[in-house]
Specification:
heterodimer; A: alpha/beta; TIM Barrel; eight-stranded parallel barrel; four-stranded antiparallel β-sheet; globular; B: alpha/beta; Elongation Factor Tu (Ef-tu), domain 3; Rossmann fold; Dihydroorotate dehydrogenase B (pyrk subunit), domain 3; seven-stranded antiparallel β-sheet; seven-stranded mixed β-sheet
Chain lengths: ~325, ~260
C-alpha cells in the first residue's frame, strides 16, 4: 500500500491533514470525545469567541431546509476568559492543531480578544469571523464592507506571528475583492464560505421558522455555491484558500482540493456524525492510494479546465 | 455515548396515530436511563438531513422502544421500517429523571405523546421501591390517549370522550384536593401550554416537579447551541435542552 503524506503547513502551523472542523460545529473540542478521535482531525476551529460571554439569540434557532439547515445561534459563547480557564488547557493537551475563531462587535474587541489569547500561547492560528449573519453589531456589517474587513485585518496582523485566517461571507457581489483586500493587509489565508443568508416560513402560522426571521444556510445545499466562490477566490489571490460549505464526504472534500483549496473545513456534517472529519481524512488517503498519489498536495489545484468531454455517469 | 446501527425488531401501531418502533441493541437497552433520548438518522442521504430526537419509552432485555406520531417526513419514514431494517442511532443523550424523595408518591403527568418517557420511568420507579405511582394522562379526545405500558392511569380528555372532562392539569388539581397531605413528586412531559398550566398549579401549591422538554435540535449533543430554553434565576440566560436537559426542575425554566 502506498504511504500517503497527508500533512501540510500553513505558516508556523503544522497540521496532520487537510480536514478541519469548522467553527461552531465542534464546540470547544471536548463535547464528543466518546465519538471522535480528535487527534486524527487536521485542526479544530473553536466556536467563535467574543470578549464577554454571549447568550445568543432566542429560540427557535435552527430549522431544517432542503439538504441543509438555517441557524441563528447568535454567537452564543462562553467568552474569552472562561475559554482560557476551562477549555484552553484541554485543547493544548491535544495532539492536533487548534485554530481560535474570534468574533467581535468592534475593531477594539477583536484586538482585545486576540491579545488575551496570544498572551497564553494556547493555539496555533486564528480565524477571524467577520461574516456572521446573525448578530446585529459587527458580523455581516463588517464582512460585507471591504474597507472594514481590510481594517480589521490590518489592526490584527501586527499582534501575532501566528497564521491569521480571515473567514469570508458569500453574501456579497465579489468575494475575490474581499480576499484580495485581506491578502494586501497581510492575512495568511482566507476561509470560505460562511453561511448564506436564508429564510423559511411556517405556512400554517405565517411566521418565520427561526426567531430572527433570516439566518445562515448551511449543509450540502450550499456546496456548489461554496465551490464556485472558492474557485473565484483561488484565481484572484496567492495566499492559501480553505474551502468550507456543505462537505459531507471525501468525494466532496476532493472537489475543493482539486479546485485549489489547501484545506477544507467540515461544518454541518458534524451534527450528523461528529467523527465525519476523521472519516473524510481517511477517505482522501484511500483515494490517493487508489490513484498512486504519494502526497495529498499533488491533488491541490489540479482542476482541468479544458472543454469537458467526459461523460459523467455518476448522476444516473 | 455511541453511534450504532440498530436492527428493527418491529414497528407497530399502538394507537390511532401512534407507532412503537422496537430496535435491538444491548448497549442502548442497558445504558439508557428514564428521560434520556436518542437521536435518529431516519435514512441515509440528505433527506431528511438532520437526526431526529426521540425519548426512549421502554427497554426490555436487549430491545429499546420509541413512540412517535407521524408529524412530518422523518416520522413517516420511520413508520415504514420493517423487521431487519437498520436504523442509525446516536445516544444515550441528555440528563435523565432523578428518583423521588423517599416516602413520596410519584405522580406522572403527561399530555398527548408526552407520555413517551413514562413507561420506562414507571418501570424504573417500581424497581426502586416506588410501587404506588399515579399516572395522569390527558389528550384532546379518546383517540389520542396513548395508554401504553402505564399503570394506575387517570384519564382526562378535552372533549370528555374518556375519563375526566377537562385538562389533565385540572384533573391533577382535583386529585391534590382529594388527597390533601399526601407527599408527592411530580414528573411531567407534554405540550408547552399544558406544562405552563402545570407549572402554575405546582407553584400555587408549593410543589416541586421534574419536566422533560421537547425542542427542535440539530446535533443533540451540545455542540450546535441550537436548542436553548430560557432559564429562571440563573447566571446563564439560556440552557440547552439536549445537554442541560431534556429533564429540568419545572420551576427553573421559562416554558414558552
Amino acid at each position: 500500500m502506498t504511504k500517503v503524506q497527508t500533512d501540510f503547513k500553513l505558516g508556523s502551523m503544522h497540521c496532520r491533514n487537510r480536514v478541519w472542523v469548522a467553527s461552531g460545529t465542534f464546540g470547544y473540542g471536548d463535547e464528543c470525545l466518546d465519538l471522535v478521535d480528535v487527534n486524527k482531525i487536521g485542526a479544530i476551529v473553536t466556536k467563535s469567541l467574543s470578549l464577554k460571554p454571549r447568550d445568543g439569540n432566542p429560540p427557535p434557532r435552527v430549522v431544517e431546509t432542503p439538504s441543509g439547515m438555517i441557524n441563528s445561534i447568535g454567537l452564543a459563547n462562553i467568552g474569552v476568559d472562561r475559554f482560557l480557564e476551562e477549555k484552553a488547557p484541554f485543547l493544548q493537551s491535544l495532539d492536533t492543531s487548534v485554530v481560535v475563531n474570534i468574533a467581535a462587535g468592534s475593531v477594539e474587541e477583536y484586538r482585545e480578544v486576540l491579545e488575551r489569547i496570544e498572551s497564553t500561547d494556547c493555539c496555533d492560528a486564528y480565524e477571524i469571523n467577520v461574516s456572521c449573519p446573525n448578530v446585529k453589531e459587527g458580523g455581516l456589517s463588517f464582512g460585507t464592507n471591504v474597507r472594514m474587513t481590510a481594517e480589521i485585518t490590518r489592526e490584527l496582523r501586527p499582534l501575532t506571528g501566528k497564521p491569521l485566517i480571515v473567514k469570508l461571507t458569500p453574501n456579497i457581489t465579489s468575494v475575490s475583492e474581499f480576499a484580495r483586500a485581506v491578502q494586501d493587509e497581510g492575512a495568511d489565508a482566507v476561509s470560505l464560505i460562511n453561511t448564506l443568508v436564508g429564510m423559511s416560513v411556517d405556512v400554517r402560522t405565517r411566521r418565520p421558522k427561526i426567531s430572527t426571521t433570516t439566518g445562515g444556510l448551511s449543509g450540502p445545499a450550499i456546496r456548489p455555491v461554496a465551490l464556485a466562490k472558492v474557485y473565484e477566490t483561488i484565481r484572484s489571490v496567492s495566499i492559501p484558500v480553505i474551502g468550507i460549505g456543505g462537505i459531507t464526504s471525501a468525494n466532496d472534500a476532493l472537489e475543493f482540493l482539486i479546485t485549489g483549496a489547501e484545506a477544507v473545513e467540515i461544518g454541518t456534517a458534524n451534527y450528523l456524525n461528529p467523527n465525519v472529519a476523521v472519516e473524510i481524512a481517511e477517505g482522501i488517503t484511500t483515494f490517493c492510494q487508489e490513484n498512486d498519489i504519494r502526497n495529498v498536495s499533488e491533488i491541490i489545484g489540479t482542476l482541468q479546465t479544458d472543454q469537458t468531454i467526459s461523460v459523467v455517469k455518476s448522476w444516473m | 455515548m455511541k453511534i450504532e446501527l440498530l436492527p428493527v425488531v418491529r414497528c407497530e401501531q399502538v394507537a390511532a396515530t401512534v407507532y412503537a418502533l422496537h430496535m435491538r441493541s444491548f448497549y442502548f437497552a442497558s445504558t439508557i436511563q428514564p428521560g434520556q433520548f436518542i437521536n435518529i438518522k431516519v435514512q441515509s442521504g440528505f433527506y431528511p438531513l438532520l437526526r431526529r430526537p426521540f425519548s426512549v419509552a421502554q427497554t426490555q432485555d436487549d430491545v429499546i422502544t420509541i413512540l412517535f406520531d407521524i408529524v412530518g417526513e422523518g416520522t413517516r419514514i420511520l413508520s415504514l421500517k420493517k423487521p431487519g431494517d437498520m436504523v442509525d442511532v446516536l445516544g444515550p443523550l441528555g440528563r435523565p429523571f432523578t428518583l423521588p424523595q423517599s416516602d413520596t408518591v410519584p405522580l406522572l403527568v403527561a399530555g398527548g405523546l408526552g407520555m413517551a418517557p413514562m413507561p420506562i420511568l414507571t418501570k424504573w420507579l417500581k424497581a426502586n421501591g416506588f410501587k404506588n405511582t399515579e399516572t395522569f394522562l390527558g389528550a384532546r379526545s379518546k383517540d389520542y390517549l396513548v395508554d401504553y405500558q402505564l399503570e394506575n392511569v387517570h384519564y382526562a380528555t378535552d372533549d370528555g370522550s374518556q375519563g375526566y372532562h377537562g385538562t389533565v392539569v385540572s384533573l391533577l388539581d382535583q386529585w391534590f384536593t382529594d388527597n390533601r397531605g399526601t407527599e408527592v413528586t411530580v414528573y411531567a412531559c407534554g405540550p408547552n401550554p399544558m406544562l405552563r398550566g402545570l407549572q402554575n398549579l405546582l407553584q400555587g401549591r408549593s410543589l416541586k416537579g421534574q419536566v422533560s422538554l421537547e425542542c427542535v435540535m440539530a446535533c443533540g449533543i451540545g455542540i450546535c447551541q441550537g436548542c436553548p430554553v430560557e432559564s429562571v434565576n440563573s447566571t446563564k440566560r439560556y440552557r440547552l435542552v439536549c445537554n442541560d436537559g431534556p429533564v429540568f426542575d419545572i420551576h427553573s425554566v421559562v416554558i414558552q
